[in-house]
Design a protein that fits this description.
single chain, alpha+beta, 4 helices, 116 residues
Length: 116
Protein backbone atom coordinates (compact mmCIF):
# COMPACT_ATOMS: atom_id res chain seq x y z
CA UNK A 1 0.00 0.00 0.00
CA UNK A 2 1.41 3.36 -0.88
CA UNK A 3 2.21 6.06 1.63
CA UNK A 4 -0.54 8.44 0.45
CA UNK A 5 -3.32 5.91 1.01
CA UNK A 6 -1.93 4.91 4.42
CA UNK A 7 -1.83 8.55 5.48
CA UNK A 8 -5.32 9.13 4.12
CA UNK A 9 -6.61 6.06 6.03
CA UNK A 10 -5.30 7.49 9.29
CA UNK A 11 -6.55 11.01 8.61
CA UNK A 12 -9.98 9.76 7.58
CA UNK A 13 -10.21 7.54 10.66
CA UNK A 14 -9.52 10.53 12.91
CA UNK A 15 -11.99 12.82 11.11
CA UNK A 16 -14.72 10.15 10.90
CA UNK A 17 -14.44 9.52 14.64
CA UNK A 18 -14.95 13.23 15.27
CA UNK A 19 -17.90 13.49 12.87
CA UNK A 20 -19.66 10.42 14.26
CA UNK A 21 -19.11 11.31 17.90
CA UNK A 22 -19.69 15.07 17.86
CA UNK A 23 -21.62 16.11 14.75
CA UNK A 24 -24.34 13.47 14.37
CA UNK A 25 -27.16 14.74 16.59
CA UNK A 26 -29.65 11.90 16.00
CA UNK A 27 -31.26 10.85 19.32
CA UNK A 28 -31.16 7.19 18.23
CA UNK A 29 -27.36 7.27 18.49
CA UNK A 30 -27.26 6.39 22.17
CA UNK A 31 -24.05 4.34 22.38
CA UNK A 32 -20.38 5.23 22.08
CA UNK A 33 -19.05 4.56 18.57
CA UNK A 34 -15.39 4.05 17.74
CA UNK A 35 -13.81 3.94 14.30
CA UNK A 36 -11.43 0.99 14.55
CA UNK A 37 -10.12 0.91 10.98
CA UNK A 38 -10.49 2.58 7.60
CA UNK A 39 -9.51 0.84 4.34
CA UNK A 40 -9.58 3.10 1.30
CA UNK A 41 -9.32 1.36 -2.07
CA UNK A 42 -6.31 2.10 -4.27
CA UNK A 43 -8.51 3.94 -6.77
CA UNK A 44 -9.90 6.12 -3.90
CA UNK A 45 -13.49 5.33 -4.93
CA UNK A 46 -14.58 3.25 -1.93
CA UNK A 47 -13.74 3.10 1.76
CA UNK A 48 -14.55 0.36 4.25
CA UNK A 49 -15.06 1.88 7.69
CA UNK A 50 -15.03 -0.53 10.63
CA UNK A 51 -17.08 0.65 13.60
CA UNK A 52 -17.06 -0.66 17.14
CA UNK A 53 -20.21 0.14 19.11
CA UNK A 54 -20.30 -0.27 22.89
CA UNK A 55 -23.43 -1.41 24.69
CA UNK A 56 -25.96 -4.21 24.52
CA UNK A 57 -26.72 -5.75 21.13
CA UNK A 58 -30.06 -4.04 20.51
CA UNK A 59 -28.94 -0.51 21.29
CA UNK A 60 -25.60 -1.10 19.54
CA UNK A 61 -27.41 -2.22 16.39
CA UNK A 62 -29.76 0.78 16.55
CA UNK A 63 -26.78 3.12 16.92
CA UNK A 64 -24.93 1.40 14.05
CA UNK A 65 -27.98 1.70 11.77
CA UNK A 66 -28.30 5.37 12.71
CA UNK A 67 -24.71 5.97 11.62
CA UNK A 68 -25.32 4.07 8.36
CA UNK A 69 -28.41 6.23 7.67
CA UNK A 70 -26.25 9.32 8.18
CA UNK A 71 -23.83 8.37 5.38
CA UNK A 72 -24.82 11.34 3.19
CA UNK A 73 -24.25 13.80 6.03
CA UNK A 74 -20.94 12.13 6.89
CA UNK A 75 -19.76 12.37 3.27
CA UNK A 76 -20.65 16.07 3.12
CA UNK A 77 -18.71 16.69 6.36
CA UNK A 78 -15.75 14.74 4.96
CA UNK A 79 -15.84 16.91 1.82
CA UNK A 80 -15.48 20.00 4.02
CA UNK A 81 -12.46 18.50 5.79
CA UNK A 82 -10.71 16.99 2.74
CA UNK A 83 -10.80 19.73 0.13
CA UNK A 84 -7.74 18.32 -1.70
CA UNK A 85 -9.53 15.08 -2.62
CA UNK A 86 -11.42 15.38 -5.89
CA UNK A 87 -14.12 12.89 -4.91
CA UNK A 88 -14.87 11.60 -1.43
CA UNK A 89 -14.95 7.77 -1.49
CA UNK A 90 -18.23 5.89 -1.15
CA UNK A 91 -18.37 4.76 2.46
CA UNK A 92 -19.33 1.23 3.47
CA UNK A 93 -19.75 0.80 7.21
CA UNK A 94 -18.93 -2.57 8.74
CA UNK A 95 -19.78 -3.49 12.33
CA UNK A 96 -16.55 -4.59 14.01
CA UNK A 97 -17.21 -7.21 16.69
CA UNK A 98 -13.58 -8.07 17.45
CA UNK A 99 -13.78 -6.50 20.91
CA UNK A 100 -16.75 -8.75 21.75
CA UNK A 101 -14.79 -11.82 20.63
CA UNK A 102 -11.83 -10.70 22.73
CA UNK A 103 -14.04 -10.30 25.79
CA UNK A 104 -15.55 -13.76 25.24
CA UNK A 105 -12.09 -15.33 24.94
CA UNK A 106 -10.93 -13.54 28.10
CA UNK A 107 -13.99 -14.82 29.95
CA UNK A 108 -13.35 -18.40 28.78
CA UNK A 109 -9.68 -18.20 29.77
CA UNK A 110 -10.59 -16.89 33.24
CA UNK A 111 -13.05 -19.78 33.68
CA UNK A 112 -10.34 -22.25 32.69
CA UNK A 113 -7.94 -20.68 35.21
CA UNK A 114 -10.55 -20.96 37.98
CA UNK A 115 -11.11 -24.63 37.18
CA UNK A 116 -7.38 -25.41 37.54
Amino acid sequence: MNYRIERLNGDMQRVLADIIEHRIKDPRKTQLVGVTKVDIAKDLKTAKVYLSVLGDKDSALTTFNTVVRSTGFIKSELAKEFRDIRQIPDIHFILDNTSEYGERIDKILKEIQRDD
